[in-house]
Amino acid sequence: MARRIFSSMGGVIVLMIVFSGWVFAEQPKEELAVISQHQWVDYANRIFIYRGEVRLDWKDLIMEADEISAYLTEENTLMKIVARGKVRITEKAGKRKAFCELATYTPEDDKMVLEGSAQYEDEFGNTLLADEIILWRGEEKMEATGSPVRATYFLEEVKVDSPSGKSD
């Protein structure tokens, strides 16, 4: 009986050691999922190029384009994403959309540069058309350049109810 208890305890200790690796393992890494018709990888330079009806899903963004390149750092983190040809970018929450011919995203500063017939639409239906649009996503600001830059805003009406003509 004593031998049976000892062997059972030994089995439990071994299982605890084996499973403790799961408890103390690194947290899950961020997932970058890509679907395409063709993939080319340069492991030495840490560049992944996808061509043909490409769809990239990362964090809160979905990017679709003819070609998307993902560049990784030495630490295996995302350095930048470059999308070319019929680029469509959508936030998963559906709040904002962007279209252009060339988009470059850098996660370090959460900046997106849209070039070539760039178009941006926010959750209110406001649109911005320009040659280049720079979005600082985390800071909720943007800059547009081009000739001309065209913005369309949908504003709320101000109700004037008082006899003085001033709004309440």
What does this protein structure show overall?
- With 168 residues, the protein is mainly beta.
- It has one helix and ten strands; from the N terminus they run αββββββββββ.
- Strands 1, 2, 3, 4, 5, 6, 7, 8, 9 and 10 form a ten-stranded antiparallel beta sheet that branches.
- It has one domain: Lipopolysaccharide (LPS) transport protein A like domain (lipopolysaccharide transport protein A fold).
Put the structure in a nutshell.
Helix content is 14%, strand content 51%. By secondary structure, it is mainly beta.
What is the rounded distance between the termini? 87 Å
Low-confidence stretches: 2-25
Q: What level of helicity do the residues show?
A: 10-25%
What is the count of helical runs? 1
Mean pLDDT rating:
82
Radius of gyration: 25 Å
Number of strands: 10
Q: What spatial form do the alpha-carbon principal axes imply?
A: elongated
How would you sum up the major sheet? 10 strands, antiparallel
State the domain count.
1
Q: Which CATH architecture is right?
A: Sandwich
β-strand amount: over 45%
CATH class: Mainly Beta
Q: How do the helices and strands follow one another from N- to C-terminus?
A: HEEEEEEEEEE
Which topology does CATH recognise?
lipopolysaccharide transport protein A fold
- Protein structure class: mainly beta
Fourth-tier CATH superfamily name: Lipopolysaccharide (LPS) transport protein A like domain
